[in-house]
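ASSEMBLY PREDICTION REQUEST
Request ID: AP-0331
Submitted by: J.K., bench scientist
Number of chains: two
Total residues: 636
Priority: normal
Notes: Please return the full assembly, not individual chains.
Input sequences:
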Amino acid sequence: MTLEVAFLFLQQGVASGLIIGSVYALLALAIVVIFKTSEVPNFSQGEMVMAAAYIALYLLVFRSLPLWIVMPATILLAFAGAALFRRLILNQVARANGSPVNLVIATLGLSYVLRGFVRQTGFGDTPRSFPPVIEPESILIGQASVTTLDLVILATAIIVMAAFFWMFKYTKIGRAMRAVGMNPKAAQLVGVDLTRIHMIVWGLSGAISAVAALLISPKVLMTADMGSIVTLGFAAAIVGGFTSLPGAVVGGFLIGIIENLVGLFVASRAIVLAPFLAIMLVLVIRPQGLFGGRVEIKKV
Amino acid sequence: MSDKAAAMLSRSEASPPARWTARSNVSPARIGLLALTTAVLIFLPFVVTGYVLYIANLLLVFVVLCLGLHLVIGETGQFALAHAAFYGIGIYTSGLAGNAFGWPFPMSMLLAGLIAGAVGVVIGAVALCMRDIYLALATFAFGEALQWVFLNWDKVTGGPNGLRISPARLGTLEILSDKQAYPVVAITTLLMLLLTILISRSRLGRSFRAVRESEVAAMAMGIPVRRAKVTAFGLSAFYAGVAGSMFATFSTYIHPDSLGFQTTILVLTMVVVGGLGSIAGAVGGAVVFGLISEFLRQTPSYQEIIYGLILIVFMMYAPRGLFAFIHDKAGRVFRG
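STATUS: Completed
Returned structure:
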């Protein structure tokens, strides 16, 4: 490989990596915001993405609604579904007072239900493709070739992330979320309604998943198993430290870029492996992740 | 919700369920349960036929997998999520030992367990520096990476074409049917069950539980915490390896697809829904949930929905598992 080709590959890898990485970053954000406030790694995140994608497909293709209705409707439905799951199911699981892992098993239960439901409706039987939001035309940036659709994906993801960070940092609800993340009891004492905050956090996570679903669906084949893409969101969250929101975003872009560079420079078969090696490397070298805080020393 | 940052995947120190406390007495009920299990295992092949015995073999493999996961999660409280990877190592090791060298099955079974256990110790030594969610995620990553190896190391594992496993043999005896495999599988399961009980009642088992309840307190009592964790992890990998080898005695084909995170999660749900921290829970969870997913196979389209709903409902209303639930309800009836 000449230097010139290597440089071309590098540009292409970084460009494609940033685009797909922006979707991973959204997914990681959706995972981390739940983990930060309720310490549950949500194993149904992938199925939430999958379900949102199928809702959008159903409304768009089978009900032939216009796109400007489909998008907000999908996001709202995902918000409501996730918030209700938290309120009706997880509240009861938490109240039942078993082992903390029970909440995780309940999210697994939801993932089975959603996947089974999509298969049951018959939409998930054959791989389907989602009509692209805009006609993709290819553009050259430097020497890297991307499409207009890619740019829309990147821009949307960045706007959603910026809005989310603004909300988390400057609004009253955002402050309440951070308070719950730091110390739920103290937050409750100063008047934060825990149930409501948990519902909103889950709802937001569902809404972000729906955005990610709308962005990624035109680029992949839709099947009932498409939720497995969230594995990369988990990888991004781990690389970023799992409790850090900026870490999740950086982790998302990093995983996207690593994946593409490995695909171009090593072998396309190694793409699948790259994120897991990245996870193991980061965890061994810096167990708390790139952006995780210092490991707390527990008192007896 | 606990106010400390005790992560979801770890045992929090707050309010340990009653079943988690150590038991030192051999109760008649416990021996009765063991005797009943043995009796059912002995008489099963005389009353049922082919397909049912295949299911029985499969359930027993899951019992051993659950016992292994029970040691590391239930006893030691370390959430390691790479069980399917070790199971895979066991299947491939004993399959290859049989295919290439024609080893007798007890030897390949032992080899499978030992290799899986050795890999487990190596991975454990690195991964168990971490705790809680990080441990879970590191072992998850290892499991996924190993599944990739199974899928891509064509020369050894057959890659995406899968691997044909030649029949297990001992001298001139060849195991060709589920019925012939059953005694091997059943006896191995009983041995592993006894081993688990022995470990659980030994000094080692007590040190596992001490680590689970509080690492700091365990350390203060002079328990080598790190070594206890790595031992538990290695043992659980050994169990998974043996389970893989058991699977290889009665099946003729293995594909890497069935060795991913889904299988680890299936075993985890069996252990948790059976009752985290109790051997009876691990065995019962494997049998009950193995049967449920097998029955649901008749209605494939509803399988996932029903299975998911069962998990959710259990977590909502029987948080300490099937057996604690029955125990509580039965106790209430007897007390009137």
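REVIEWER COMMENTS: Residues 3-12+21-285 of chain A form a domain with the ABC transporter involved in vitamin B12 uptake, BtuC fold (CATH 1.10.3470).
SIGN-OFF: pending second reviewer
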